[in-house]
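User: I'm writing a short methods note and want a consistent example. For Adenylosuccinate lyase, I'll paste the sequence; you return only the structure tokens, no commentary, since I'll be parsing the reply automatically.
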Amino acid sequence: MIPRYTLPAMAELFSDQNRYALWTRVEILASEAQMRLGIVPEAAVEDMRRARVPLPSRVAEIEKERDHEVLSFLAAYCEDIPETSAVWVHLGMTSYDLVDTALGHTLGRAADLLQGTARRLRRVLVQRALEHWDTVMVGRTHGVHAEPTTFGHKLAGYAFAVDRCVTRLAAARDAVAVGTVSGSVGTYALINPFVETHVCEALGLGVEPAPSQVVARDRHAQLLQAVATLGACIEQIALEMRLLQRTEVREVEERRSSAYQGSSAMPHKRNPTTSERLCGLARLLRGYATAALEDVALWHERDLAHQSVERVILPDALSVGHFQAEAAVSLITHLEIDAERMRAHIDQTDGLVYSSSVLAELLGRGIPREQAYRSVQAAADRTATTGEHFADALAGTGVTLDQLEPQRFLTNHDVIRSRLEDLSVLDD
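Assistant:
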């Protein structure tokens, strides 16, 4: 995990100590189930419950001799259990009964953390969209001025995108929060399926319906695809905020602390560093998602090619995704909006943003489309090349711009606001 991009709650979930605590819990739950089946003595289960969770340092020490993490964990765990009871530990189980079941629990909790932050991002986007619903600005296509819109409308689009991400994360959370306690090659040959049911129910997990010894890795791929998609949606937001902070635009600005320094050489710089960071992290998330897809195909009932990849991509992807989403919440919450500059930019191109209204007016008079389009385009070209105001360049068309204001483009705009208000109810 990358400390710079890892928040404490996610770091704790993927810590070695938490992993060994979960492995200990799975072992105890499995033994409890076998006790109920009359297989493991009650006294042995009590001894297991009293035993301490092995320290990561002790497991690492044993692993130098055994070269197998699960066996080293079991050896460290059994050091604190009487020998007569230790023989019942891990009965009928295989390593990945322990590893994958605990991992399913961890991934479910990690997905919950990320979902919670995504919901907060959705909420702040809705709030700020409603706040700036009537803050008019120029809409841009291909980076070029198009027609008037509002900043609230822009944020509304992002809010709905994040809402879709919340839905994807919920589905991925359900897919990944599963376990299996089915023994070697997943046939339950040496363990009763009741044990699996008991363990997974206690941990709030579903059960892999046809285990091959391991939980199917398409589940992990689904989760990391959902994380990467959220990352891409945040990247879209951050990219727009970067563009709107350019010197030539300056319609929004990130909040900066008094300690901010934008350049080692140029004290005047006010760089969009938070937005840039969010875009960069999205690239990482896409890479993790690709690696997760590579882990889906395993040899026969299982191999170990996926393990080294998962040790990196699962904690890293979830920690980076969580950090990115939290940073996006802060960015939008504290974003400063220059409404006056937004309004001024509508007039920057001398009326050209109203060309579609002029075209519609001519078409409404029955002028053929090609003729009307070429006439308006010729006037627009004169404005763009000579600086003549569009209203003057239109002389001869019989159309004036006297009544044209940005609000003319927003006549039916509130239908989108009503949809946004419906979305806001989700967080009430």
